[in-house]
Amino acid sequence: MTQPFTAASHHDILVWLIQVAILLVVARGMGELVQRLGQPAVIGEILAGIILGPSLLSGLVPALGYWLVPHNEVQGFLLEQTALLGAMFMLLFTGLEIDLGLIRRHARTALSTSAGGLLLPFSMGFVLAMWLPDDLIANPEQRLVFALFLATAMSIAAIAVIAKVLLDMNMLRRDLGQIVIASAMIDDITAWTMLSIVAGMASGAAVTFIGVAQSILSVLGFVVFSFTVGRWIVGQVLNFVQNEIKARDSVLSIAIVLMFAWGAISQALHLEAVIGAFVMGILLGQMPSLSEEVIHRLESIALGIFAPIFFATAGLKVNVASLLEPRLFGFALLILAIACIGKISGAYLGARLLGKRDHWTALSFGAALNARGAVEIIIATIGLSLGILTQEIFSMIVLMAITTSLIAPVMMRWAFSRVVISPEEQERLRREAVLKDNLIASVHRVLVPVRLRESDNMIDPVQTIEAGLLKRLSGQTDIAITLLTVASADDKARATEFLNRLAPLFGRQHVNKKVLISNNAGNAILDEAAKGYELLILGAPREGTRTDVLFTPLVDYLVRLAPCPTIVIHGSSLSLDWTPCRILVPTNGSVAARRAAEVGFVLVPRATDSEEHVRILQVVPEEKTATYPSDVSGRLRNRQLNIAHQIVNELAMLGDSFGVHTVPEVVTGNDPETVILERARTGQIDLIILGISVRAASTRLYLGRRVERILQDAPCPVMIVNTVGGATVSLPVESSVNDVQETVAAPSTAA
Q1: Starting at the edge strand that comes first in sequence, how are the strands of the sheet with 445-449 ordered?
Q2: By residue range, what is the domain housing residue 655?
Q3: Model confidence over 19-75: pLDDT tens digits?
Q4: How buried is 311 (Cβ within 10 angstroms: 0-12 exposed, 13-18 middle, 19+ buried)?
Q5: Is position 517 within any domain?
Q6: Dihedral, CA atoms, 373, 375, 376, 382, nearest 10 degrees?
Q7: I need a labelling partner for 76 at 20 to 30 A (CA). Which of 143, 391, 544, 621 fits?
Q8: Above 50 in pLDDT, residue 120?
Q9: How far apart are the first and last CA of the chain?
């Protein structure tokens, strides 16, 4: 008969609430303090637990320790489960940082560095564990399990600590930083696999060949399942939630559900739940449709709430006073020395002998990978909970984790400063700095509504521009495209076939095809766009003579109310193999104009041929009347021209960073739109891109007379890039054009 579950006692819950509140506030406070001292926050979070625990306050003031340290099984259980959540969220976020493509790009150096950084400390840790006296081992009969566990703990590298230090030093995007992260990724994956085997062995009554084989097969089966069937499941679940669920934070919720599900699977296989969370983090990190917003929220949950509690709880278990006994203190120093010597020397030799890197680069790898911090504490906690480690060895490992994380930044700064940066790397870093605030780089999920044509074999010409743009975009970042059409129930089969025929135009990137059954196409598309899309691309063929709309009633409606940035492609009479080779982008120095130029740089082919280029055009108005004395007027005119040249030259530099031939041009004229149209004709321009920044202000889409004239008279297709998303009714966002209705990124006639 199933027994009803009961809650903990009122007093135990009270103690737990006080513990969590104090641990969190002190951990965050200490984390802030050590960050101001130039150290990773995790060090302060662990020190918070040590200060509050038996090492200091709880030991000196037992009455305070009564409320801070669990004193019965229930209190311990409540705090342990809270800490487990912290470990799972921490490993989920760590998994999100795993970039398998990065590992492949730096495979030789990363593998060589990681191999040395694993084998030498593992061997030294194993020998040390086999030599340690029995009283330091929880179960002397399982010395082999203990030796393998300690060797694994010696081999680990804390990617979270390393990444944080690299970020603080502005080194993460350096080639050096990328190889360090790649090596740390390999270390983490290998060490967690080893840990899974050891944990499986520890759960058995005896160490046998069959037991070891079962542990290895469990790990291999779990990994193979996760990265084949599991990856497909994650992708399907994520797509379903993003496409069908409108509730706020639904993707965040399903990510956490999947974390618990994979944790349950790994726990059922007698592995650890945190291993499942780590693998799920890797899987989620490979999903191109996972938005940056969800990742940031998971980071906030992990690093802002649960991880500090976990690390403080780990520090709470440490009793530094027990290590002050000379014998134990000697063993603690021995473990620390072997851990540092093994990791630094191993990574150095691997990078130097196998990776063929120079002395300072190889030493930098060893200095960085020596940081253990976050992951080491997790491993030590697992070992303590499995009964592999004694309290003394646990405290020694935590002390080693803290010390290595404290000395790593100092060693990294010293070694990194001596590594010579190559000209190729300097150019790459310059390009990345230019692209830091790039609209295209932040797009991961794109919605492309397409109209079902009357003829089954007709494809709208503007869809070739959409396809070309997205194929270029996929070269800048991983994107997930949703092709959407709205149809009646009777046309669903024909609409599905149409999308299947259209999808190959968009290249190899992931294309999701969706048919919505609705009588209101506008609302159906807006409802879909509200499901976390970061860009909406619309086609607006030139057809009809209506004067009450700018594009079409549907496109106008979507541009006014879209919840995300929007691109509208306006044109006709294009062949299916059309590619814009000459693009014109008018500018006045506004953000909207910059966004338009960024799209142009992505769309034009990469070539040195001057025929393939992006022309950046600034029109400076001619002076109509002598408002100022001639000398003042001349100075103002020169300043205006200098600013114009600076604007186009800055965008030309941005184009160069894309590898695109860019032509800056400043001309004078009374009528900017006339100049733009004339340049489009004489320059045989294939595409004009206009940047705007507009929200709904009325029931009619109005972008200003200049935009409308360009749309009407342009000799080529026109692309409108609206950088403002959201259905909030307000005045159009003001640009450098004096008239707020004039939102095109073309120059104003005002000075």
Answers
A1: 510-517, 480-487, 445-449, 535-541, 566-571, 718-722, 687-692, 582-586, 613-621, 662-669
A2: 579-751
A3: 999 999 999 999 899 888 877 777 788 889 889 988 889 888 888 888 988 888 889
A4: buried
A5: no
A6: 140
A7: 143
A8: yes
A9: 86
* Contact yes or no for 204/211 (Cβ under 8 A): yes
| C-alpha dist (Å) from residue 676 to 571, 681, 736 | 17, 9, 17
From residue 406, alpha-carbon distances to 56, 403, 412, 416, 418 in Å are 20, 5, 11, 16, 20
Rounded to whole angstroms, what are the CA distances from 713 to 588, 619, 668, 723? 21, 18, 20, 24
Residue at which a domain ends, from 398, 421, 444: 421
3-class state of residue 363 by DSSP: helix
- Inform me whether the pLDDT recorded for 698 exceeds 70: no
d(CA 641, CA 643) in angstroms, rounded, equals 5
Q: Supply the pLDDT for residue 624.
A: 57
d(CA 626, CA 630): 7
Sign of CA dihedral 542, 547, 552, 556: positive
Residue 628 carries which side chain, given as an amino acid letter?
Answer: Y
Which amino acid is present at 295? I
Report the domain count for the chain.
2
pLDDT band, very low/low/confident/very high, at 234 (cuts 50, 70, 90): very high
479-499: per-residue pLDDT in tens? 788 888 998 888 888 888 888
Is 509 part of any domain?
A: no
Domain assignment of residue 530, yes or no: no
- From CA 714, how far away is CA 716, in angstroms rounded? 5
Return the pLDDT at 59.
84
Instruction: Kindly report, residue by residue over 562-607, the tens digit of the pLDDT.
Output: 888 899 888 765 555 667 788 999 998 888 888 899 888 877 776 5
Beta-ladder partners of 487: 517
Of 369, 401, 421, the domain-final residue: 421
Question: How, if at all, do strands 535-541 and 718-722 pair?
Answer: unpaired
Give residues with Cβ within 8 angstroms of 337, minimum separation 6.
none
**Structure tokens belonging to residue 677:** 């149209």
Share of the chain above pLDDT 70, in %: 81
443 inside domain: no
- Please count the CA atoms within 13 angstroms of the CA of 684 that sit on its side-chain side: 5
Give the list of residues 6+ apart from residue 140 with CB closer than 8 angstroms, or none.
134
pTM value?
0.69
Provide the CATH number for the domain around residue 630: 3.40.50.620
